[in-house]
Amino acid sequence: MAARGCGGVWCRVLQRGPGGSCSASRPRRAVACNARGGAVPLGQSGLAPWAAVVGLEIHAQITSNSKLFSGSQVQFAAPPNSLVSFFDASLPGTLPVLNRRCVEATVMTGLALNCTINKKSLFDRKHYFYADLPAGYQITQQRVPIAVNGSLSYSLCKDNKMSQMVTKTVRIKQIQLEQDSGKSLHDDARSQTLIDLNRAGVGLMEVVMEPDMCCGEEAAAAVRELQLILQTLGSSQAIMADYEIQRQIKELENGGTVLNETRAFDSKLGCTVPMRDKEGKQDYRFMPEPNLPPLILYDAKSLPANVNHQQVVNIDWIHERLPDLPSVKRAKLVELYGILPEHSFTLVNEDGLMDFFEDVVKQTQMKPKKVIGWILSDLLSHLKQHSLTAKESPISSFLLADLLNLLENGDISSSAAKQVFEELWKGEGKTPLEIVKEKQLELIQDQEELEQICQAVIDEREKEVMAIKGGNEKVINKLIGLVRKATRGRANPLLVKQILEKKLSE
Amino acid sequence: YRRGQPLGELDGIPIAVKDNFNTAGIETTCASNMLKGYISPYNATVVQKLLDGGAVLLGKTNLDEFAMGSGSTDGVFGPVRNPWSYSRQYKEKIVPRSDSEPENSNWVITGGSSGGSAAAVSAFTCFAALGSDTGGSTRNPAAHCGVVGLKPTYGLISRHGLIPLVNSMDVPGILTRCVDDAAVVLGSLAGHDPKDSTTVQDIFQPFALPSLTDVSKLSIGIPKEYHAPGLSSEILAVWSKAADLFKNAGAKVVEVSLPHTHYSIVCYHVLCTAEVASNMARFDGLEYGHRSDMNKSTESMYAATRREGFSDVVRGRILSGNYFLLKQNYEDYFVKAQKVRRLIANDFVKVFGSGVDILLTPTTLSDAVPYVEFIKEDNRTRSTQDDILTQAANMAGLPAVNVPTALSGRGLPIGLQFIGRSFQEKQLLTVAKWFEKQVQFPMIHYLSYICEAAFFHPQRACKVSGSLKN
């Protein structure tokens, strides 16, 4: 599944039937997405928004060199079963050893989500039998997780209008550390299942959101913001395509009439199916993990005096080193550059775009408010069309800045600039100036030349001239257009208008 | 050898290791069909330490399957025979019941579950052996086989590589012929292991045991609850005599109470089976070990594999354990048992806090019974009976040691147990060593043709520690 790359995020949105609470029954890991909430279907299937609320459980793979409880490497796309230690394979007699980096990543995430970090948290075993769970249990945090009671603010556009953004908050119930399982590849042709344990034991942060969201849109926006936060912190790469989030949530919405049970989305079948395990009948027989002592975290106050700093995690130390969160970044952009809030969203949302924008601003005299237009419409649309990130743009920030300078200096018209942009996009190594010269796109600076052309147009278009003189002023635009055509976009339209008006009034 | 320097105190010393410790390249079975033929790819930390010190691994010893049992009779390789069954001391005392009785039908058990290790040491096949101790599995067979059996404090010695029975109670156990040897082996094994998060961080200092001469400053506690129902009069007498020994030597001997002792059996049963159910969940035939030929579905393969691989004893414990861990039962059983465990542990804290240094108790209820008698009751019943005097130390994580004390009327070993404070092995073993010297437990005498070869005096046998005496 596309969503499960290295550092992947996958959502489980749990649906709750009336009176029942949905504990995590064994999902089809690769594709599961269930909605949780006391949903009341409103008559028509799938068309009306859910009346009640949606909660989310998001599992994000922690970015670390080694796994949560063993020393084997965490790596994407390695040959099957090449990153499996004795512990990961559950060889008898092996014991878990907690990875400090995973703890730090989770503390960072908890702090970024305004959580209370539990200075003492516990590990538990959650038992179920499945081929990709070698030990027959997952080590997780059921009783006392590492972080609780946080919040996540996110924005979404009302009615799809970027200009109408509302800010919403969802409460974070908890964040817990747990192991990921291996991967099952079902080979129905040969009636067998192949197991790859590379992923078994990789650290996961499970972020549990309270059912504060009213619909799929809100859920998607919340997840997107969480993704950004995780990527900013570096605690998880949180790779999950936007469309994937939308798709999963939409699928649930389309299954509207069956919201009262938990369904999983099976990507192969392309529809929702009832969960394989009988929901509510699965008893995980939780038990404390006896091989791991309670996880004790310290802050500046509680840190014991003579302690090995390699052995402890200091919450305050981590707090001090948190990078700017997306919301802070956006606010700074608006303040610094005077751009609109919705612009800041796009800048921060799109990978590398903010840096690109800032680089261009540094290298050009054009005001940021004008630069933003080029970034968000011209550049971004091209990037999207070709599925590129800003870092992969064939036009570097330097070249774009160069181009914008030409425009700003009045050397070329904006339509000419757009032409140059197209040329630059080809990535043939030419500078904007070279392209301008090559295509002869410079604005005609010679007043006399312009006047001649304008005169020529006036002479040709008697009908239009009559119309203008007769009071229909809008027709002048047609003349301007003709002049521009004649000059192949090399005439400054304002100047042209001036000249035409002057001539026509004579 | 090349450098002319020993690797350590154990260089060249033959040892045996219970077959629930992982040994790299060597079959590690836990006496179970589930792991028959399983070649472990790594050494348990304790095994590695022994090998690094130059010890010579003679072999893996037999046990009850997955260390579940108190007789070493329930492993797939069959029961372990107590070497004392063939001693002159025992054979002399046997009253032949009938002429039709087969020659060797009255051999006695070793106790368990580390019976193989105890027998190995007792029969002079090695100088020291590793056992494991969860409810008494090192001390019990030590008592029946007339050897020293040390259960160290939980967290002192690494469990990495010890295939677990109950993670929160298991410790590697040490079986030797004298207390000094136990101290030596302890010295090479103890200490923090990064691979085992339950080992303490403190640096461990190996120690040599002083030869105590003055016990007047010692306070010995005699817990009255250890006068348990079923305790043989013989053992009671030996215990009393031992208490008098200390008293006459000037020590303070006081009766103490550990009031929650009689709850320990049920408490142990709940916690043990719960952990067993969890620990055995990994045996599904997929990654290693036995895999059934049944392949209609994954679930059916699991079921068949586990039915074929596990004995009834193991399966019984798994079922019980899963029952106790069910959501609706968890509070009533597991959590309750944890609370009772805390009470049991607190009993010891109180007693040690009141000025008592060491507790003196019997190790077993009687001397070793004949195998044919032992198997008349099932594993569960036997474990319940036999663990009662040893379990509580595992509940509380305390160090305890069996010291062979005297021979019974049947010519079989009787041992007594000393229980000490957490991490005070030095004090514990110092007292044990003094006691050992006082009682002069006799050496096992085989029939004459073996005896000639056995010119070792028990104390001279302790060549390792250098205490050569005549």
TrEMBL record, chain A:
Gene Ontology cellular component list: glutamyl-tRNA(Gln) amidotransferase complex; mitochondrion
EC number from the UniProt entry: 6.3.5.-
Gene3D superfamilies according to UniProt: 1.10.10.410
Keyword tRNA processing set for record: no
Gene Ontology molecular function: ATP binding; glutaminyl-tRNA synthase (glutamine-hydrolyzing) activity
Domain Asn/Gln amidotransferase: 355-504
Catalytic activity entry: L-glutamyl-tRNA(Gln) + L-glutamine + ATP + H2O = L-glutaminyl-tRNA(Gln) + L-glutamate + ADP + phosphate + H(+); L-aspartyl-tRNA(Asn) + L-glutamine + ATP + H2O = L-asparaginyl-tRNA(Asn) + L-glutamate + ADP + phosphate + 2 H(+)
Leading EC class: ligase
Residue ranges that the Swiss-Prot or TrEMBL entry lists as coiled coil: none
Methyltransferase listed as a keyword: no
Compartment annotation: Mitochondrion
BP GO annotations: glutaminyl-tRNAGln biosynthesis via transamidation; mitochondrial translation
Superkingdom, natural source: Eukaryota
Position of the signal peptide: none
Record's keyword terms, sorted: ATP-binding, Ligase, Mitochondrion, Nucleotide-binding, Protein biosynthesis
InterPro entries: Asn/Gln-tRNA_amidoTrfase_suB/E, Asn/Gln-tRNA_Trfase_suB/E_cat, Asn/Gln_amidotransferase, Asn/Gln_tRNA_amidoTrase-B-like, GatB, GatB_Yqey_C_2, Gln_synth/guanido_kin_cat_dom
Reported function: Allows the formation of correctly charged Gln-tRNA(Gln) through the transamidation of misacylated Glu-tRNA(Gln) in the mitochondria. The reaction takes place in the presence of glutamine and ATP through an activated gamma-phospho-Glu-tRNA(Gln).
Stored HAMAP family: GatB (MF_00121)
Sequence similarity: Belongs to the GatB/GatE family. GatB subfamily.
Binding partners and assembly: Subunit of the heterotrimeric GatCAB amidotransferase (AdT) complex, composed of A (QRSL1), B (GATB) and C (GATC) subunits.
Name this protein carries in UniProt: Glutamyl-tRNA(Gln) amidotransferase subunit B, mitochondrial
Native source species: Meleagris gallopavo (Wild turkey)
TrEMBL record, chain B:
Functional note: Allows the formation of correctly charged Gln-tRNA(Gln) through the transamidation of misacylated Glu-tRNA(Gln) in the mitochondria. The reaction takes place in the presence of glutamine and ATP through an activated gamma-phospho-Glu-tRNA(Gln).
Active site (record annotation): K18 (charge relay system), S113 (charge relay system), S137 (acyl-ester intermediate)
Localization (cell): Mitochondrion
EC number: 6.3.5.7
Organismal lineage: Eukaryota, Metazoa, Chordata, Craniata, Vertebrata
Gene3D superfamilies per record: Amidase signature (AS) domain (3.90.1300.10)
Listed PANTHER family: GLUTAMYL-TRNA(GLN) AMIDOTRANSFERASE SUBUNIT A, MITOCHONDRIAL, TRANSAMIDASE
Name under which the protein is recorded: Glutamyl-tRNA(Gln) amidotransferase subunit A, mitochondrial
Family: Belongs to the amidase family. GatA subfamily.
Assembly and binders: Subunit of the heterotrimeric GatCAB amidotransferase (AdT) complex, composed of A (QRSL1), B (GATB) and C (GATC) subunits.
Alphabetized UniProt keyword annotations: ATP-binding, Ligase, Mitochondrion, Nucleotide-binding, Protein biosynthesis
GO cellular component, one term: mitochondrion
